[in-house]
What does this fold into?
Amino acid sequence: MFELPEKARAIQAEVEQFFTEHVLPANSQWQKEASDGFARPPVEMALRDRAKALGLWNMALPRLTEDEPGMRLSNLEFTGVAEVLGRLEWASRVFNCHAPDVPNMELLQLFATEKQREQWLKPLLEGEMGSAFAMTEPDVASSDPANLETCIERDGEYFILNGRKWFASNAGHEHCELIIAVGVTDPEAPKSQRQSLLLVPRHAPGVDIIRNLPVFDHTSVTNMHTELTFTDVRIPVDQLLGERGAGFSIGQARLGPARLHHCMRAIGECEVLISLMVERSQARSTFGKRIDEYGATQAAISLSRIELDQCRLLVQRAAHLLDTVGNKVARKQISMIKVAVARVYQDIADRAVQIYGAKGVTSDTPAARAFNRARAFRIYDGPDEVHLQTIARLEAADQDLSHVAYYLSGE
Amino acid sequence: MFELPEKARAIQAEVEQFFTEHVLPANSQWQKEASDGFARPPVEMALRDRAKALGLWNMALPRLTEDEPGMRLSNLEFTGVAEVLGRLEWASRVFNCHAPDVPNMELLQLFATEKQREQWLKPLLEGEMGSAFAMTEPDVASSDPANLETCIERDGEYFILNGRKWFASNAGHEHCELIIAVGVTDPEAPKSQRQSLLLVPRHAPGVDIIRNLPVFDHTSVTNMHTELTFTDVRIPVDQLLGERGAGFSIGQARLGPARLHHCMRAIGECEVLISLMVERSQARSTFGKRIDEYGATQAAISLSRIELDQCRLLVQRAAHLLDTVGNKVARKQISMIKVAVARVYQDIADRAVQIYGAKGVTSDTPAARAFNRARAFRIYDGPDEVHLQTIARLEAADQDLSHVAYYLSGE
Amino acid sequence: MFELPEKARAIQAEVEQFFTEHVLPANSQWQKEASDGFARPPVEMALRDRAKALGLWNMALPRLTEDEPGMRLSNLEFTGVAEVLGRLEWASRVFNCHAPDVPNMELLQLFATEKQREQWLKPLLEGEMGSAFAMTEPDVASSDPANLETCIERDGEYFILNGRKWFASNAGHEHCELIIAVGVTDPEAPKSQRQSLLLVPRHAPGVDIIRNLPVFDHTSVTNMHTELTFTDVRIPVDQLLGERGAGFSIGQARLGPARLHHCMRAIGECEVLISLMVERSQARSTFGKRIDEYGATQAAISLSRIELDQCRLLVQRAAHLLDTVGNKVARKQISMIKVAVARVYQDIADRAVQIYGAKGVTSDTPAARAFNRARAFRIYDGPDEVHLQTIARLEAADQDLSHVAYYLSGE
Amino acid sequence: MFELPEKARAIQAEVEQFFTEHVLPANSQWQKEASDGFARPPVEMALRDRAKALGLWNMALPRLTEDEPGMRLSNLEFTGVAEVLGRLEWASRVFNCHAPDVPNMELLQLFATEKQREQWLKPLLEGEMGSAFAMTEPDVASSDPANLETCIERDGEYFILNGRKWFASNAGHEHCELIIAVGVTDPEAPKSQRQSLLLVPRHAPGVDIIRNLPVFDHTSVTNMHTELTFTDVRIPVDQLLGERGAGFSIGQARLGPARLHHCMRAIGECEVLISLMVERSQARSTFGKRIDEYGATQAAISLSRIELDQCRLLVQRAAHLLDTVGNKVARKQISMIKVAVARVYQDIADRAVQIYGAKGVTSDTPAARAFNRARAFRIYDGPDEVHLQTIARLEAADQDLSHVAYYLSGE
Ligand SMILES: Cc1cc2nc3c(=O)[nH]c(=O)nc-3n(C[C@H](O)[C@H](O)[C@H](O)COP(=O)(O)OP(=O)(O)OC[C@H]3O[C@@H](n4cnc5c(N)ncnc54)[C@H](O)[C@@H]3O)c2cc1C
Ligand SMILES: Cc1cc2nc3c(=O)[nH]c(=O)nc-3n(C[C@H](O)[C@H](O)[C@H](O)COP(=O)(O)OP(=O)(O)OC[C@H]3O[C@@H](n4cnc5c(N)ncnc54)[C@H](O)[C@@H]3O)c2cc1C
Ligand SMILES: Cc1cc2nc3c(=O)[nH]c(=O)nc-3n(C[C@H](O)[C@H](O)[C@H](O)COP(=O)(O)OP(=O)(O)OC[C@H]3O[C@@H](n4cnc5c(N)ncnc54)[C@H](O)[C@@H]3O)c2cc1C
Ligand SMILES: Cc1cc2nc3c(=O)[nH]c(=O)nc-3n(C[C@H](O)[C@H](O)[C@H](O)COP(=O)(O)OP(=O)(O)OC[C@H]3O[C@@H](n4cnc5c(N)ncnc54)[C@H](O)[C@@H]3O)c2cc1C
It folds into this structure.
């Protein structure tokens, strides 16, 4: 009962085989092409075609319909696959299972009009374009969406969009065609009903890419974090996604699966790091002992195993709840996995760096970048502190305190 | 799939109802009787009869046979029950599911001769006597059993037992009749084959109780930690438990389920502590804010929820593995839960103490004693460090390192 | 410059010699007498006379005047002495340097009228009576003094005192004659001016000792934590200590040195624990290695050394600031040492317990009780969280932010 | 007594003024020039001239002689200066107080022949060239110097040098002229007498720069971490530094002050990070509260203040000991500050990143790079684990255990 269901294991095995035979051996080639400036490295493109042909495609979309390309998996079923994909930063793209396209597709599945689906969802499902989600703004504390200042004003049959965003992942990617922008349409409405989502063509006049933000000095062309401005961008009114004023609640909906996928991928990467710690610590010696004989190394590896297994179980349970009781009820679970996994991810990467010594800070191993990605993860998808606040509130609501007095005594 | 099987939930519900209706409301009565010096408080005795009559008895023994009293549950099924029982330190005794009698009964089920079963197992199953397990010695570092010095020498049809033991839980309890003692029968054999187990009547001549050890200043008559000496204790040779020289491996076997049960009970107790944190933090205010509005309190509660849920899942998985692949294969899992749960238990108790302020250090709430019990748990059933060493070794053995090179680069 | 001044070292050496020659060897005798029920063990009384005769007396009172008995030391000078005294829980009493009498004497030195000094300060200085300070109340969150509910009402030439207090250390001690009680005299005044201090004879009618509170199951007759009630206790108006309504600020004043002394004593105790860790880890072996060869043990000892030295330096600096700039300016420092030392104390004690294994949870070593005392220290003298809040506020006030912009860049 | 001596404070103030008036305002200019590819940014060069002219030069060399340029400060005196310089990564260079030139100059002061001093020390003191120290090798675990494989073979009047090194900081810098290389001259000697130091001209034939290593994806031309190979490099025998076979002990000597300086600079940088946390948390709000009102933020700032002050005191004490009792006796202290400061540095940077949110992972603030620099610091100058081992050993040697038995009891 703590194994994934049989179907999920079968697909996981299939993906694992594809990954091991085709993706992993291509890694050094991919790294080379990426550092040569290919935003979509040819080796990745070739593997994409292959994966798509095999139907190993769009596996992260539980709402996939019969006539859409790919394989429909439940959230739980996807966890096993996601873990495999997480082993390499670029593997998810091979299977069209990467952020932010997946959560954007899910938004479109849930809220897009027929016309919008045709225009945006279809090419995304086919992998013919990329997309971005632009909510965070440099000028306000964006972990509270009520602070957002980007404004969307109606002007006849158009909305006029003005504002500055940053960390809109992949908005500046050469493949990106769609930016889903969050802006204020109704400044006088109650806080949670002020915002709306607008489908903004990446190349619309007034959309200006300012810079590709470094994340701990890492900037890549394959995975960008973009600062951009909207200056009087005119968008036809039928490009509003979902209800006017519903931006906040739609945004929330988007976050459930997005967080889940980030967590599962991180777990896959952590498995790689544990293997590397074991391997490296067996390969070198100091002061007459193999590194793996030192208590510190043993604790590093053992605690990583314990914590990672705990995270996987928690995430799988959350996935199962998303499947069965839905996003809203599983909200506490989603916050819980977000906090738990980000911490463990950072700790495991920290240990891997240490066991490698100086090599651990270079890019010769995945440890250094994992360490920084993990650090960023404690901020994106909501800073730790905000989730802890949320969990406490929901926990209090869940508690039945009617019997606690029996546990207490005193004068 | 992250719920216990239906049967297990049904029984858990039944036990929970009994607990809530009968056991919990009797808690203050029990505390009073215990502090009045009753080693077996009358209120507990009465509830025992009632539970036994209902068949809520011996639920922690997966090897229970048809003709033995009680309800056979698998390890996994028992987890849910154990969690309920863990809420009060004395609840397990009501259902004859308490340590060290349960692991001792399991040993007897596995290794006792027909005669030994009749003499010792039967009354234990009926709850007519108590037992103890005496391995640890004050004079040697006993986390390495190879250090043990108690000796068992053959003298015709008898073994002569000499040595000093301590922390033989409940050996000094007025109800105890049997002490399973670990001693060296074969000093020249290879390290792991030197020891044997002997079934020693508590009141045999030469068995002397030295003292009831305080555990962080807590001494009770209901749950004792006994220091004792064996001086020329004569035991008939047919009272050897299992093979001569097999003491080490038998002892190991004993520890799997014992650790599991300790972990599950601790989780139950932690649930109580979380409830108490929620309750208390809603009840008081400082500097114009309710305690539960402070970030520190929220973090305390949220992290406790996250960590506890992670522990429960890990423990349930370990239980499932004990049921399916057995003690030996699940060894890494057992070490993992031991380390994980003891830490979380200590952390949650630490937070509960803090949220209570000065009240938290008194005995008016269960927090103080939980804090100390948790602290002891990081030592008994094997110190953290020893388990971390074991896990690292088993983890390395589990790893397939054939693909790691693909993740590395460098000149 | 990181050594104490020469005079301080000379006195520290003198105290150390007395301690090593007379106090420490008497420890087992003292423990025996204390557990036999002597609130003032004869061996302690004899040593007190001896120390007093040598002038090693009242060393914790920087305001000691020429005609008062004892040796005036500055706060800084006392740090070295306090550390020696901290090695044994009862050593401070030998030199009349123990809490709560010291901070109470200091209060009296600062605020008492001539008559009050004669009546209370003099016998305290001579060590002829004990005292207590009763602020905390069980029914309100007392880390915010504004919550206190005990009331002091004027009735002609008397105040009538009503309320319930707890954790008034040593109020129930057989030697105690004076309870300094905090109560509300002016409920309508601004929050910080509502309270006053009243000098209450321990045996005044209406003063009722309810219980001697266990602190993690430790209750002793030598050092008590008392719950008590005041029921219509009549106290002449000239027994108000300091100004009416000044209770809050006087109470604050009391806390500076009190916290300092607790910190220094804790450091002394931690030194003992480090020695014990070293000693024990050299004395036993597991799995073919001496315990001190394990990385975990080495880290335990090394981190303890690092953290403890850091604490000592911080505390000595705070003492120096108390001497030079005073209580108010040094407020941030006092909060800082409180937080720092309590944590390190708990961590070091935790490590010592672990290295001892099962012995560590008994009372055969000082580790178990130190662990619990440390845990309590995170609550008394103000819970961690409250100090962290205070420090942050004072830190912000201390900051000159005029140049920070130079460190920032961005679009 | 916890202030630096007056002379030290006066010079610190002078440096601080220069820093605030000239260096800090030039920061954005410097950053621009550095990212435009200037290994020695013109703005830095101009400030260097100015500082040198004022005599604010070579302040980190306690052995500076009368006729050498600059200002001789003791280690303790330099701590205050170093902290100011640490605020900006490039500020130390302005005053010729940067690594690795400072420890290399110290080595030359201690061990160079007259001729070597003329050739290498003089231009370094004048700031006319740079230098590097090449010990670490990619192919062996270099935290144990006994593992080193680079070999130095005698061939008549020459040594022939062969080997691969990495992380030889600034060996590849355009200004570097001298590489001090560690290699094995006497493979058959006892472990600690096998190695010697060789003064290798950077541009000698056979010295090949392989790559500029990224440190967490940060590569700069101003501060490089170089991988290089030595292939049959021929060096005259009079270029051996110190005794043949003394490489190990000389290398140890070098590390004392080097570690001290790294620690002091890190403390300076942490002060900047604290200021930034305070500033940022006052500037933004979420959910109706300013960020600095949240308990998590307050704890972040307060703990940073506590830990940083503790580190500063410990480091200053270590500096004082280096000055008074010397490198060898102060060895434990040096290991202690290394471990303590690296951890606190990482923690403070971690908190600063978090408080900035997404901005914290960019290069718009110093937090992200500080976080990574701190992480690397837990490895260079010796990994944490190795220092913890050393400290434990020295601590045990320092302990007088003759009285510990008095603290113990038991049967
Ligand atoms: C790698 C990466 C990728 C990202 N991708 C995207 C993307 O594709 N699209 C997008 O729109 N955004 C993206 N983001 C932005 C991310 O969603 C935001 O950074 C996040 O929501 C926090 O907002 P903020 O950065 O404005 O931080 P702020 O809101 O300014 O918060 C800063 C800090 O304040 C503190 N704080 C805030 N609230 C509280 C509280 N209640 N209690 C205690 N402390 C608090 C926390 O320490 C927090 O970290 C990405 C970020 C990163 C790093
Ligand atoms: C509440 C309680 C109940 C108990 N009940 C029983 C019982 O019923 N029957 C029974 O026989 N025993 C019982 N014990 C004893 C328990 O099993 C032992 O305490 C435990 O096995 C450790 O042995 P030790 O105390 O001799 O510690 P030691 O073996 O002396 O170890 C002490 C410490 O040394 C260090 N250490 C040891 N080995 C290593 C290593 N490989 N790496 C790093 N560090 C190491 C650890 O810090 C360890 O904590 C109980 C103990 C307690 C506290
Ligand atoms: C061993 C011992 C000796 C003592 N001796 C004395 C004595 O001699 N005289 C005397 O008067 N008192 C004494 N005390 C009592 C002590 O001073 C109080 O316990 C302390 O002031 C806290 O008050 P409280 O217990 O009412 O906790 P509460 O005020 O109820 O606080 C409980 C918890 O709430 C949380 N909390 C409160 N405020 C905040 C905040 N601002 N931010 C975040 N969290 C918060 C903290 O977790 C805190 O621990 C002693 C206590 C102990 C344990
Ligand atoms: C930014 C930076 C600058 C540097 N500058 C220089 C320079 O200028 N010149 C130079 O020569 N070198 C330099 N170094 C290299 C540095 O000195 C080495 O990285 C360091 O000595 C460790 O050696 P290693 O990398 O070979 O690690 P290894 O020796 O392989 O150790 C790797 C890991 O093994 C574990 N380990 C090793 N021994 C033990 C033990 N006894 N107990 C427990 N665990 C252990 C630790 O986790 C350790 O981190 C620099 C490094 C960095 C990151």
Remarks:
- The first helix of chain A runs from residue 6 to 23.
